[in-house]
Specification:
The complex is a heterodimer of chains A (518) and B (797). With 518 residues, chain A is of the alpha/beta class. Chain A is built from 22 helices and six strands. In chain A, strand 2 and strand 3 form a beta hairpin.
Chain lengths: 518, 797
């Protein structure tokens, strides 16, 4: 693909204001739907970062050694988080700031890639879609390697495209270095981008150029053959359905299909081939690698969200390109900030029930509007601008409903733990014995991973992990907590000498607090 | 029509018939029984019967009953004759969709539509069960076809004939099921489409209606709509309406995008029915593990294969301006939007209440919406292949689908075939997500393009077979099990006296009656009574006349009177059927004496089981226990001790027992016990008494057992009451030497709070009395502990 020389130059009126509006909406969504480190993996990452931060005070070399013992993918998030902990202490804000900045950085890079490939408006809409994606909003406050790998992934492609447009060998080397780093950190995440770059280089070769049409079908055929040989068809189907690739992107999927078909049918198809190739390669590698994905520890907690967030990056650019083309650049630059402002006002109006009702209906309407849009595409073309804007508004509104779901369901466990701590922190000192490692890690996080006893308001608090055998000998007056649905053998039955104090929450995340009687 | 096309449509119809017979459904679920009953009643009573039915609630579907009644009259009642009407309807629809495709788009699109309809999963499974949706789809499709060909007729009389036929078919569809009515909007759209779009018609409209008239008509329409809206808002609370709209938004709208239905279950809306106006507002709760849990196990995967292709088809057809496909898309949009958001007044009094159709329908209601869906997909696929290639593709698709279905249904190859079909669905998804590029770039390369689409067509055929949670099919095996059990019960009843059968709430007698070809009674809604028929509502009369009761489930029995004479099917299945026989009181003693004599050695298990049942029927407890102990000696594993356990526990509760405390009072007592080598036992003092704590440290290569000696008498029933907590997984109570059947089963349990269980057992008659046996109180593994606070053995006197 021969690209026109593109520029990343910045104009205050056409770039800054809309981009800032989009980024501010992203920040606002993350603030309104903020949930502390609620996933076990993210609390664990906070613990590891805290440990590195403490070691950093004493011995830098030792801190590096410690970093080398952590899972490779986590090495991208532990140093910045440790540094933040070192500077601001372990708080909810300092834990979330890294992933949130990464998420905003990904949006910025998406904008830059969109601008490089197409135009400012395409990048702008791509960035907007990225920032409002429901699971993206939820996950981007969690300390997960994915949040740091996604911007790296986009950066690799962006650097490659920029190098290509500039013909700069230094930029090529930079892109190659980043790609190598990404492969080293988490090869499955980076593989698609690398394959895309290789294929793009090969298809630019004049001798191989005629064969570029065969790349996607060949990859599809190879994937099918691989699935047949490895007998992993059901796993691949699981990745598509069981782990909600489609369901959670319900409102994005049809739009991607429409835009992909539109992109392929236009005369500008040549300029879009790179993007479609990027998207296709990612999808096929994800499907083919289903059994590795399912085996990944992250899948246990958050499905394959970590993988499909990555997958959707080129999809969003595709939608951004199509909508921008139909709206035209000037319209996009005006309307995107207006929509952002409208949503922001709605969000600030409070998390009232009516907002959820409106967004739920918008969710349904978005799907219907999509059907209309397809069925009457040619008729709607002349009215595309209002229809497109209406669509975009519903799309953004509809995503609020899903955001609410993630936010509430995952926050329950964390809120229960916080309430439990607040309840026991009223005397001079209190000791809480727990038998679950996960609960202990969560409690330690709330205490900022400080050595015990820790001062919480007026109370000197100690949390201690005990085994089931030790549970009979807990000192009188101390507290002990257990979850209603214990998960492993380490958990014992409440003893007769444990007096129930309180119950926090309902369902599987419920916590029970007991006081040990003499 | 060309001869070769005739041949192809014939092959497709044969293929459709083959698939429907391979996946034959029959009378299995629930609604079909009602239809069979009513159709049978009409077949017996003629049109007078139809008039009588008219007065019964829920009997307003004569369009469905009459054709079936006619078939019953001709071929009698059987599962095959019951399925004949929907089967024919499905095949006729297959032909009609071919004709519509040919008329609207092209010959090739017609053939493809017929092929896609032949493999459409929902249609396959509805084609052999007597639900209204298959016939309704036939009638609405026929109506649309009649109206469509009317526009091609030159002679007014022919045209009027087509109109008349079309209206007649719409009327028939309405009489099959009222929810078919939105088809009139699609029909109106057709008239607009075919007439108003022509220049001639436009000029006619312009001359006949002045702008003033049109403004008046439109203005009146707006005023009436507003008046309707006001009346509607006054009649129904806003919050209820908006909540209904909300639920609809999160409900069926995703069907056409995801291919999955029912994300909200009826039960979630509360005890009140979802369509009830007095229901509480419902807001779906956030799920605990939204991201990691299965999307929703109860969701139905209706259109796995078809939805992605539909999306692609819509996109490609509109972008390539394939005008011939536009009406199909319009038809789809109208029906989908109505079924999604349109109101469904259940009667005239509720005309101002907004009840969304989608809230209370099951997925089969989507069948008639799927006709334009299939047409749209066919329009897309037909534009991708030449006529010759398409016919080749059809033959390849048919043969590969038949081979796939044979492999899938074969137990030896089923697992691999399922895996293969999953790959096919994944490939179709991937193709639709990224294949747009392929479609357009390969237009220049006809060879590759041809191969891709021939493979795609074969993939659609095969992928449609994948067993998912298709409509009702998730329960297919369970329903089939119930059918087999009831047929076995019917066979058994042939050799029994013709006592009356009580019909209660289980509904089983209704099924039994139909499976027997109405051998017991006319349809149940006629309130049949003994002695004119074999059914009665009066259970009290059985003391005098004798009789039978049919129950679902074969678990523990709560009283001797409910003890079954025979069970049909797997006892652990919820569809197991138990048959209780009541012997007339005057004959019961003689029957017991006879059964007792038959159960004397040497005998068969059947004779002993009969003895137990007759003893229970006679409410003779000693004889009942005697029967159980005889069975325990004859065949311990088949002794119905689980079924008897509840009766024995009740005896103990009534105080008819001698009790022995088995819990050790000091450490010395434990010396008589046998404990696994890794177990440590101790006695702890806790309120209200001593607690025996047995701990096991570390993981164990072998199971660790806790055994204690018991002295038991032969031919005696016992209940062992155990109060325990168990941190380690434990399997409680087992007698291995000699083998004594007990009611505890092979269940591994772990209880964190004090839990009481009662295990019943009956000693075999072969035991020397009294004899010491070893009771294996529990088996344990892995680390943890088990504690006992109460161990009471009750010997039932």
């Amino acid at each position: 693909m021969k690209m026109a020389k593109k520029s990343l130059s910045f104009s205050w009126q056409s770039n800054l204001f809309p981009l800032v509006a989009v980024l501010l909406l992203g920040v606002l969504l993350r603030a309104v739907y903020y949930s502390d480190q609620v996933l076990f993996e993210s609390v664990q990452a906070a613990k590891n970062s805290s440990s590195i931060a403490q070691t950093l005070d004493e011995d830098v070399v030792q801190a590096i050694r410690e970093l080398r013992t952590s899972p490779r993918a986590d090495r991208i998030l532990l140093p910045p988080t440790a540094l933040l902990f070192r500077l601001f202490g372990i708080t909810a804000t300092s834990s979330a700031i890294g992933p949130i900045i990464s998420s905003l950085l990904a949006a910025l890079l998406l904008w830059a890639t969109g601008k490089l490939m197409f135009s400012n408006g395409a990048g702008l809409i791509g960035a907007l879609l990225w920032l409002i994606l429901p699971a993206g909003v939820f996950l981007s406050t969690q300390l997960l390697a994915t949040n740091f790998l996604v911007p790296l992934n986009i950066l690799v492609v962006c650097a490659y495209l920029y190098a290509k447009s500039r013909g700069s060998s230094r930029l090529y080397v930079f892109a190659a270095f980043l790609a190598a780093l990404g492969l080293w950190l988490h090869w499955l995440h980076m593989l698609a981008s690398v394959v895309f770059i290789i294929l793009d280089i090969l298809s630019s070769n004049s001798r191989l150029k005629n064969y570029k049409d065969y790349i996607i079908p060949s990859l599809l055929l190879l994937t099918v053959l691989y699935l047949l040989a490895s007998q992993t068809g059901n796993e691949a189907l699981q990745v598509l359905y069981l782990t909600r690739l489609i369901e959670e992107n319900l409102i994005l999927l049809p739009l991607i299909v429409l835009c992909a078909a539109y992109a392929a049918s236009t005369k500008e198809a040549a300029n879009l081939q790179s993007l479609l190739l990027w998207f296709g390669t990612k999808l096929l590698i994800m499907v083919a690698g289903a059994h590795w994905i399912i085996a990944d520890s992250l899948v246990g907690t958050i499905g394959v969200a970590a993988y499909w967030l990555d997958l959707l990056v080129p999809g969003m650019l595709l939608v951004g390109w199509a909508l921008n083309k139909k709206l035209d650049e000037a319209q996009t630059i005006i309307w995107v900030p207006i929509i952002c402002a409208g949503i922001a006002v709605l969000l600030l109006a409070g998390q009232a029930n009516w907002l959820m009702t409106v967004s739920r209906i918008a969710f349904g309407l978005t799907l219907l509007l999509f059907m209309f849009l397809l069925a009457f595409w040619n008729a709607a073309k002349t009215k595309f601008k209002p229809v497109g804007l209406l669509f975009l508004t519903f799309f953004v509104l509809g995503s609020l409903t899903l955001n609410n779901w993630y936010w509430l369901s995952y926050r329950q466990a964390h809120d229960n733990t916080r309430q439990l701590v607040d309840n026991i922190a009223h005397g001079e000192k209190a000791t809480l014995f727990v038998q679950e490692e996960e609960l202990m890690t969560r409690l330690s996080y709330l205490a900022g991973f400080r050595p015990f006893p820790v001062q919480v308001e007026q109370t000197s608090l100690t949390f201690e992990l005990v085994t089931a055998d030790q549970s009979a000998g807990l000192p009188a007056g101390s507290y002990t907590a257990m979850s209603a649905h214990y998960r492993d053998f380490e958990f014992g039955a409440p003893l007769a000498s444990w007096e129930p104090v309180d119950v926090y929450g309902t369902g599987p995340t419920q916590l029970l607090l007991f006081r040990v009687l003499p | 029509m060309k001869k070769s096309t005739n041949l192809y449509i014939f092959i497709i119809l044969l293929f459709a018939l083959a698939l429907r017979l391979i996946y034959f459904f029959g009378i299995l679920e629930g609604d079909d029984v009602e239809y069979v009953d009513r159709a049978y009643y009409i077949s017996q009573n003629g049109l007078a019967g139809l008039k009588e039915l008219d007065e019964l609630p829920g009997s307003n579907r004569p369009g469905q009953y009459l054709p079936t009644a006619l078939i019953f009259r001709l071929f009698g009642v059987s599962e095959l004759s019951t399925a004949l009407f929907p089967l024919l309807a499905s095949l006729i629809t297959c032909y009609l969709i071919y004709r519509i495709g040919r008329l609207l788009i092209s010959e090739e699109a017609g053939l493809l539509s017929a092929l896609l309809w032949a493999v459409f999963p929902l249609n396959i499974f509805l084609a052999t069960q007597l639900d209204p949706e298959g016939p309704l789809t036939m009638a609405t499709t026929g109506a649309m076809y009649s109206l469509m060909i009317s526009t091609t007729k030159k002679k007014p009389l022919e045209r009027i004939g087509c109109y008349f036929l079309g209206l007649l078919l719409i009327g028939w569809a309405y009489l099959i099921k009222q929810s078919a009515l939105p088809i009139v909007f699609a029909a109106a759209a057709w008239f607009y489409w075919s007439y108003a779009r022509t220049a001639e018609m436009r000029s006619q409209l312009a001359t006949r209606f002045s702008k003033k008239t049109l403004t008046l008509v439109i203005g009146t329409g707006i005023v009436l709509s507003l008046a309707f809206l006001v009346a509607y808002l006054l009649k129904q609370p806003w919050d209820k309406s908006i909540n209904s709209a909300e639920l609809t938004a999160t409900d069926i709208s995703r069907t056409m995008v995801l291919g999955r239905m029912n994300p909200i279950r009826w039960e979630e809306l509360g005890n009140e029915y979802y369509f009830s106006l007095s229901r509480q507002l419902y807001t779906p709760e956030p799920a605990a593990n939204t991201l990691s849990s299965y999307p929703a196990a109860f969701q139905l995967t209706l259109f796995d294969v078809f939805v992605p292709i539909l999306l692609l088809a819509l996109a490609v057809l509109t972008l390539t301006k394939e005008r011939r496909a536009y009406f199909g898309m319009l038809w789809l949009a109208i029906l989908f939007l109505y079924i999604e958001w349109g109101p469904y007044p259940r009667n005239l009094r509720q005309i101002f209440y907004y009840l969304p159709v989608s809230h209370w329908i099951s997925p089969d209601n989507f069948l008639y919406v799927c006709i334009p869906l299939v047409l749209t997909i066919a329009a897309f696929l037909s534009t991708q292949l030449s006529s010759t290639n398409l016919k080749q593709a059809i033959l390849i698709s048919i043969s590969s689908t038949l081979v796939a279905s044979a492999l899938l249904e074969n137990p030896v190859t089923g697992v691999q075939a399922t895996e293969f079909l999953a790959i096919i669905i994944v490939a179709i998804f991937c193709f639709c997500l990224i294949g747009a590029q392929t479609i357009f770039t390969f237009r220049t390369n006809r060879g590759a393009h041809r191969v891709i689409f021939i493979v795609l067509l074969a993939a659609i055929g095969m992928g449609s077979l994948k067993h998912g949670l298709h409509y009702h099919v998730s329960f297919f095996e369970a329903f089939s099990e119930r059918r087999a059990n009831l047929k076995a019960a019917h066979a058994y009843l042939q050799s029994e006296p013709a006592y009356p059968i009580v019909y209660g709430t289980s509904g089983l007698p209704g099924w039994l009656n139909i499976y027997s070809g109405y051998a017991y009674s006319p349809p149940l809604f006629t309130n049949p009574t003994y002695p004119e028929t074999r059914f009665t509502e009066n259970a009290n009369m059985l003391d005098e006349s004798g009789g039978f009761l049919l129950n679902t489930g074969c678990g523990p029995v709560t009283s001797l009177a409910e003890w079954p004479i025979k069970e049909f099917g797997d006892a652990s299945s919820e569809f197991c059927v138990s048959l209780v026989k009541k012997i007339p009181v005057r004959e019961v003693n003689a029957a017991l004496a006879q059964a007792q004599a038959s159960a004397a050695d040497p005998t068969t298990a059947e004779n002993i089981l009969n003895y137990i049942a007759v003893a229970a029927n006679a409410e003779n407890f000693p004889a009942f226990v005697d029967g159980l102990s005889k069975m325990a000696a004859h065949d311990p594993s088949d002794t119905p001790i689980v079924q008897a356990s509840e009766i024995l526990v009740q005896k103990v509760a009534a105080g008819a027992s001698h009790q022995i405390d088995l819990l050790p009072t000091d450490e010395g007592d434990l010396e008589n016990w046998k404990l696994g080598s890794l177990l440590n036992a101790s006695l702890a003092d806790e309120q209200p008494g001593k607690v025996l704590v047995i701990t096991i440290n570390g993981s164990t290569p072998d199971l660790q057992t806790i055994q204690l000696p018991l002295t038991l008498r032969a031919n005696t029933a016992y209940v062992l009451e155990i109060e325990f907590t168990s941190f380690a997984p434990a399997n409680l109570v087992d007698f291995t030497e000699p083998e004594i059947p007990d009611s505890s089963g092979e269940i591994w349990t772990r209880e964190l709070s004090w839990t009481t269980i009662r295990v019943a057992f009956v000693t075999p008659s072969s035991l020397s009395s009294p004899e010491q046996v070893w009771l294996e109180l529990a088996k344990l593994y892995d680390k943890g502990s088990i504690s006992f606070r109460r161990l009471i053995l009750s010997e039932i006197q």
